[in-house]
C-alpha cells in the first residue's frame, strides 16, 4: 500500500491510505496496481460505479459544447435534467434549486424553511449528520464535529431519533422545519420507523412548519426504492439530494413545491450550481438508474446481505441495520481493525462513528463480488 498523504492537503492526517488512480465499475486500482472492490470508498456518491460509460460519454460530449454558463441564461441540458428529476418524484414537487453538494443543498433547505415560515426554529434528530457548513453543522448532532466551531447558528434543537413523543413535544409555533434523514448514514445507519416519520409529517402540518428529508445518502435507489421516503409513503415539503445524483460529478438539489417557492422571500444563488457539465452527467445518471432498475437491484442484493448477517460472530457484533445496499454493522469494539482487515483483503469500506462498519457499494456491483464482499466482512469482523 502506498501512502496517499502528501503533506499538502488540509486536514488529511498521516494515516496511510491507498492512492487510488483508476476505477471501473465496482473496482478501484491503487498506484501499485492492486485492485480493490468498492464497498463504500466513494461515501455513497458512486452508485453507478467508477466511470460509468454513459456518464463518461455525456461529460465528453458536453465538455466540447459548453462547460459553464450562469443561471441568468437558459440552458437546454439543465432544463432536461430538471424535468427528468421531477418526473421521478411525486407530482407535488415542482421546483428545484441546484447546487454543488449535499451540504449546500441542506443550507438551501434551511434558508427556504426560515424564509417561507418566518420562524427561526429547526428540529433535527440526535445522531444526525447534515453537513459541515455552519447551518448544516448546526443541524448535525455529533459534539466532536460541532465544538471546535461554536457558537453555531442558534435555534436548532435535537430530539431522540425514532421517538415520536419527543418529536411532538419539540415542534411548536416557532418551528420552521423538521429535518430528518430517513436512514441516518454517518450516525450509524439507523433506519427511521414509519411511526417517527408519520409523526414528523403530522406535527409539522399541525403547526404550519415544513418537513424536510435529507436524502443525500439514501436517495436514488440506495435503499431499494428510488427515494427512501417511498418505504413509508411520507412525502416531505423539502427533499435534499446529492452524492450519486450525477454519477460522481459534484451536484446538489433542493426540491420543493410551487407553493413553497411562492412564499419564499429573499434570494439564494450558486455560481456553479446546475452547470451544464454536471447536468449532463446527472441526466445520464438518472437514465441509467431507471433503465437498469438499480433500485430493484439494490433491494435484491440487500436481501442477499440480510440473509447472511445472522451468521456474523455474535460475540463481536452488537447489531446490523440497513436497507437495500446501505448497511451498518455495529461492533462491540472499535471498527478500525475490521476496516483495516477488509482493506488488506482487497475491499474498501468506511466507518460510521467509531464502532460501525458501513457498507455503501455501487448499485451496479456484480452479485459475485457482493457475496464475496460479505464473506470478507464476516472474516474481518471475526479476526479484525
Please describe the topology of this protein.
Layout: E1 20-24, E2 27-30, E3 35-38, H1 53-63, H2 76-87, E4 95-99, H3 102-117, E5 121-125, H4 134-139, H5 143-146, E6 156-159, H6 164-170, E7 175-180, E8 183-184, E9 190-191, H7 194-207, E10 210-214, E11 238-241, E12 252-256, H8 258-263, H9 276-291, H10 294-308, E13 317-323, E14 326-331, H11 336-344, E15 347-348, E16 350-351, E17 356-359, H12 367-383
Parallel strand pairs: 3-15, 5-6, 5-7, 7-10, 10-11
Antiparallel strand pairs: 1-2, 2-3, 4-12, 8-9, 11-12, 13-14, 14-17, 16-17
Task: Please tell me what the overall shape is.
Answer: globular
The count of DSSP E runs of length 2 or more, i.e. the number of strands, is 17
* Unreliable parts: none
The ordered H/E elements are: EEEHHEHEHHEHEEEHEEEHHHEEHEEEH
Remind me, CATH topology of the largest domain?
Answer: Aspartate Aminotransferase, domain 2
Distance between the termini: 18 Å
Major sheet summary line: 7 strands, mixed
The CATH first-level class of the largest domain comes to: Alpha Beta
Strand content: 15-25%
Q: SS-based structural class?
A: alpha/beta
Q: What percentage of residues falls in helices of 4 or more residues?
A: 25-40%
**Count of alpha/pi helices:** 12
Whole-angstrom Rg: 20 Å
Q: Let me know the CATH homologous superfamily of the largest domain.
A: Type I PLP-dependent aspartate aminotransferase-like (Major domain)
Mean pLDDT: 95
Q: Based on the coordinates given, report the CATH architecture of the largest domain.
A: 3-Layer(aba) Sandwich
Number of domains: 2
* Largest sheet: spatial strand order: 4-12-11-10-7-5-6
Amino acid at each position: 500500500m502506498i501512502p496517499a498523504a502528501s503533506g499538502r492537503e488540509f486536514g488529511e492526517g498521516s494515516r496511510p491510505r491507498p492512492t487510488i488512480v483508476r476505477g471501473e465499475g465496482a473496482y478501484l486500482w491503487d498506484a501499485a496496481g492492486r485492485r480493490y472492490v468498492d464497498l463504500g470508498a466513494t461515501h455513497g456518491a458512486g452508485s453507478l460505479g467508477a466511470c460509468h460509460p454513459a456518464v463518461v460519454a455525456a461529460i465528453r460530449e458536453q465538455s466540447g459544447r459548453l462547460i459553464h454558463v450562469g443561471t441568468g441564461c437558459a440552458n437546454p441540458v439543465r432544463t432536461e435534467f430538471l424535468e427528468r428529476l421531477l418526473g421521478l418524484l411525486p407530482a407535488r414537487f415542482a421546483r428545484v434549486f441546484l447546487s454543488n453538494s449535499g451540504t449546500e443543498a441542506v443550507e438551501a433547505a434551511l434558508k427556504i424553511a426560515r424564509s417561507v415560515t418566518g420562524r427561526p426554529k429547526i428540529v433535527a434528530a440526535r445522531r444526525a449528520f447534515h453537513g459541515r457548513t455552519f447551518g448544516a453543522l448546526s443541524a448535525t448532532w455529533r459534539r466532536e464535529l460541532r465544538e471546535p466551531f461554536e457558537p453555531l447558528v442558534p435555534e436548532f434543537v435535537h430530539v431522540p431519533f425514532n421517538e415520536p413523543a419527543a418529536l411532538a413535544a419539540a415542534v411548536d409555533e416557532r418551528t420552521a422545519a423538521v429535518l430528518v434523514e430517513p436512514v441516518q448514514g454517518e450516525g450509524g445507519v439507523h433506519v427511521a420507523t414509519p411511526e417517527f416519520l408519520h409523526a414528523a409529517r403530522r406535527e409539522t402540518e399541525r403547526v404550519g412548519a415544513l418537513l424536510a428529508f435529507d436524502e443525500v445518502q439514501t436517495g436514488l435507489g440506495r435503499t431499494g426504492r428510488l427515494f427512501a421516503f417511498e418505504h413509508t409513503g411520507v412525502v416531505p415539503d423539502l427533499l435534499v439530494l446529492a452524492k450519486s445524483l450525477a454519477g460522481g460529478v459534484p451536484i446538489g438539489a433542493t426540491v420543493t413545491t410551487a407553493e413553497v417557492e411562492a412564499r419564499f422571500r429573499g434570494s439564494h444563488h450558486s455560481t456553479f450550481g446546475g452547470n451544464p457539465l454536471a447536468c449532463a452527467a446527472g441526466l445520464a445518471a438518472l437514465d441509467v438508474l431507471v433503465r437498469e432498475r438499480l433500485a430493484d437491484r439494490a433491494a435484491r442484493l440487500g436481501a442477499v446481505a440480510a440473509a447472511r448477517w445472522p451468521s456474523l460472530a455474535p460475540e463481536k457484533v452488537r447489531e446490523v441495520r440497513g436497507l437495500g445496499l446501505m448497511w451498518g454493522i455495529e461492533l462491540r469494539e472499535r471498527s478500525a481493525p475490521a476496516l483495516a482487515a477488509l482493506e488488506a483483503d482487497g475491499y474498501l469500506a468506511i466507518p460510521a462513528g467509531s464502532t460501525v462498519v458501513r457498507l455503501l457499494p455501487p448499485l451496479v456491483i456484480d452479485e459475485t463480488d457482493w457475496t464475496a464482499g460479505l464473506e470478507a466482512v464476516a472474516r474481518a469482523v471475526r479476526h479484525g
